[in-house]
Amino acid sequence: MGGPVIRNETFFFADFEMSKVRQSTTAVSTLPSLSQRTGLFSSAIIDPLTGTAFAGNQIPLARLWICEKIGCAPDNPIETTNCRCSPIRKENGSLFIMCAGWEN
User: Fold this and answer.
1) What's the half-sphere exposure (Cβ side, CA atoms, 13 Å) at 51?
2) Which among 26, 36, 52, 61 has most CB atoms closer than 10 A?
3) Range of the domain at 73
4) How many domains are there within the chain?
5) Nearest Cα residue to 64 out of 85, 89, 36
6) CA 73, CA 59: separation in Å to the nearest integer?
7) For 27-44, what is each residue's pLDDT tens digit?
């Protein structure tokens, strides 16, 4: 939208845009197995602090921090791509531009 405010002297232009995106997708991820979430692994795990293997291939529970934060359990026994979810992507955007000018 635009036009003169004072003929041949002052003018303005304005624009407003708004968009909403709602898109559902299927995401496939690899999550730790339930035994890995408790720190138990089938092969040797090296402690990054000491450089030696953890005893019994088990990370001490005090050193685990991500297990409670994941919030989803694996949905099949396969070790890779074992979790599917369908998040809805929501994006709202708006933009308002206004311009005014004059001639001497």
Assistant:
1) 0
2) 36
3) 2-102
4) 1
5) 36
6) 19
7) 777 877 778 878 888 888
